[in-house]
Fold this protein.
Amino acid sequence: MSEPSPFDPPDWLDREDAVLAPYAMRTRLSRGRRYPEPSHPYRTLFQRDRERLVHCTAFRRLMHKTQVIVAQTNDHHRTRLTHTLEVAQISRTIARRLALNEDLTEAIALSHDLGHPPFGHAGEDTLNELLRDLGGFDHNLHALRTVDVLEERYADFPGLNLSWEVREAFVHHAKNRNAAEVQPYLEAGQPLLEAQVVDAADSLTYDTHDVDDAVGLGLISLEKLDGVEFWRQAAQNVVRPGASPELIRHSVVRYLIDWQVRDLLQHTLDWLKKERICSVNDVRQAPGLIIGCSPEIAPLKAELEYFLHKHVYEHYRVLRMKQKGRRILQALYREFIRQPELLPTRFARRRHDDPVERVVGDYLAGMTDRYAQQEYLRLFHPTVDV
Ligand code: MG
């Protein structure tokens, strides 16, 4: 018998069984891909999904899409891409501690905002109104459409041909629970723990980084935040006398993230035990979600979110950005519907398969903030090149 080469891959399926918790999703249990593909010699199913996502066009565009603050306001606040990376690393920390499938968790985290149009929630609301006759617009379903249909990277199949479990994660937040494409996924039961981790990480990530960005851009002051219990308690633990405002901000934000992750892990481990969750099937059949923060943290988090709504998301500068984004999308939509010949060839071609409203909607939803602004100038500014 020949010696095993150091390059011979271990059996990844056995390795997943050896290291993952019994309630973790694993390749063996996957419902697989829509178009069957041979397995890879040394990358797992979900690892390949994660890598496909990082290589796709929609992922790169996250760099120039608004999270809350329009991308080019300055160079330091979060964009959809940096938000996504923060969610991915916090999710991975949680997944590792719970012995969940890290590859799957990361694939879900890296793709969780893939379907967002330009200009953040203002962009989504605007497209939802414009596309009302086609059932509206939902970034979750648009993400599914992006990875299943719109990405063109493989000769053998449309989209990225991701595993069922990664695609399922898009659908659990769909606003229209009755949409035809949603049903098969919802029938599976509760979301996998890997998807639940990403949801919880998303929420704690944006709450903390939105405060951070808002202070950084001068939308709110540290003094004002002292009136928020969550912030005040965190500050009491970490702020040293004489610290600069910058250091105060960074220390408190760091503490808030760590505090919430610790709380979430403890609460979740207790809950898994209490509910006797011993398999993926138990997760599916559970009466509710399993991953979440404790009842002690929940009201503190809710108060912070209320504060953010009142003082950040409705700040006049944020509202101006939203209004501008909305106007740009409305103008582009009207112009392309009025004269679809103005669409770039790749989209004009799709008019044979889809109603023009859907084609224009897909074109607009895929745009970055920057591209939408440039396209607006190309269409309407008399001296900008087309
Ligand atoms: Mg997000």
In short: Residues 83, 87, 112-113, 202 surround magnesium ion (CB under 6 Å).
